[in-house]
Design brief:
The radius of gyration is 25 Å and the shape is globular. Strands 1-2-3 form a 3-stranded antiparallel sheet. By secondary structure, it is mostly helical. The protein folds into 2 domains: 74 residues; 242 residues, Cytochrome p450, CATH 1.10.630. The chain is built from 18 helices and 3 strands. GO terms for molecular function: heme binding; iron ion binding; monooxygenase activity; oxidoreductase activity, acting on paired donors, with incorporation or reduction of molecular oxygen. It comes from Lachnellula suecica. InterPro entries: Cyt_P450, Cyt_P450_sf, Cytochrome_P450_monoxygenase. This is Cytochrome P450 monooxygenase yanH.
């Protein structure tokens, strides 16, 4: 009798939990379809009640819809970009989205405004106009490398892979700037294509981890030897993390030996140095590693992507091409002259991003906090 009672109690508890889950899910579906603040936004009903719709089309590709998840809408109007991403914006970052990236503790993925402000204040001086001008020679050197490589390719009747070329010049600049250790992708026969292939393969893991966060926790708990034995996108995550650890270790070693850090202080030389007057204490190495991942990602993908778009917009529009060519020829009559930044930023076409048209800006999504 006692056994039966114990079984009945267990069954009752289990059944109650199951009923609660089902009822809660039914209510959530009803809420998302009819009561949610985004319920009036058009889009497939399946997308309004589950994240699986977005995950599927993010992995296989497809036509974007307007309401892509229960609490996200997809936007494409460039005029909305500044409203959403401007300083002081009322739109918060999407925590589930940023948590699934491979740079969880970087300033880029930090959720809290105050914590983000502290981290950004440490990085801001290195991306100021003054600092960029001070290190313009680094940019000019690598830009010339890309131009020379392109010219040689054309002279030999070969095609130039500008998709990876733009990413290579961006990576060579940022690694010199951030670590004082240039990767010199532009000097390689493959111009660093292996690195960009690795980076691009990270995309699918982000969507999978966003849908099933427990998989990300499990993956991060795996020993390194097991991660190295894997294939596909997950292996790329561990490769990138190891890559960033190595870069940080090189900077730390440089500082300990009193080497190059004495001649030029880089981003990570600064992040690895306590500054009591500024209230800065060196964070855990994992956080520094995440910052490195975010910075490399910005160079490998965001900056390279922007240059690709700009190039495409110019060469596909004869009027824009002619206008830009005329402005450059007037500003630099000598074709061999250095195109210095101060002069370039004053040119009419180069000073306005809207001149390139709406197709320059990729689609993006906005997550509701409801």
């Amino acid at each position: 009798m006692a056994v039966l009672t114990e079984y009945s109690t267990t069954f009752l508890i289990g059944s109650s939990i199951a009923v609660y889950i089902v009822v809660h899910r039914i209510y959530r579906i009803f809420y998302d379809l009819y009561l949610h603040p985004l319920a009036h936004i058009p889009g497939p009903k399946l997308a309004a009640i589950t994240y699986l719709y977005q995950t599927y089309f993010s992995l296989v590709g497809g036509r974007p819809v307007v309401r892509i998840t229960p609490d996200e809408v997809h936007l494409s109007e460039p005029d909305n970009y500044d409203k959403i991403y401007s300083v002081g914006s009322k739109y918060a970052k999407a925590k589930p989205y940023y948590e699934t990236m491979s740079c969880g503790d970087s300033s880029f993925t930090t959720m809290g405004n105050e914590e983000h402000r502290v981290k950004r204040s440490r990085l801001n001086p290195f991306f100021s106009r003054k600092k960029i001008i001070e290190l313009e020679d680094v940019v000019q050197l690598n830009a010339k490398k890309l131009c020379d490589l392109t010219a040689r390719k054309f002279e030999n009747g070969e095609a130039m892979d500008l998709h990876h070329g733009f990413r290579a010049v961006s990576m060579d600049i940022i690694t010199d700037y951030a670590f004082n250790q240039c990767y010199n992708f532009l000097d390689r026969d493959d111009i660093g294509e292996w690195f960009f292939t690795m980076w691009e393969s990270l995309g699918p893991t982000m969507w999978i981890f966003q849908q099933w966060p427990v998989l990300m926790t499990f993956a991060n708990s795996l020993p390194e030897w097991m991660a190295e034995a894997m294939n596909g996108p997950l292996k790329s995550v561990f490769q990138l993390q190891a890559h960033c650890r190595k870069a940080i270790a090189m900077v730390k070693s440089d500082m300990d030996s009193g080497g190059k850090s004495a001649s030029r202080r880089t981003i990570f030389h600064d992040l690895l140095t306590d500054d009591p007057d500024a209230g800065w204490t060196v964070p855990p190495i994992q956080e520094i590693q995440d910052e490195a991942t975010a910075i490399l990602g910005a160079a490998a993908d965001t900056t390279g992507h922007a240059m690709n778009y700009a190039m495409f917009e110019v060469i596909s529009d004869p009027a824009k091409y002619e206008r830009l060519s005329t402005e450059l020829k007037e500003a630099f009559p000598d074709p061999n002259a250095k195109l210095d930044y101060i002069t370039l930023e004053k040119l009419p076409l180069g000073s306005s991003k809207k001149q390139f048209g709406e197709s320059t800006f990729p689609h993006y999504s906005l997550r509701s906090n409801v």
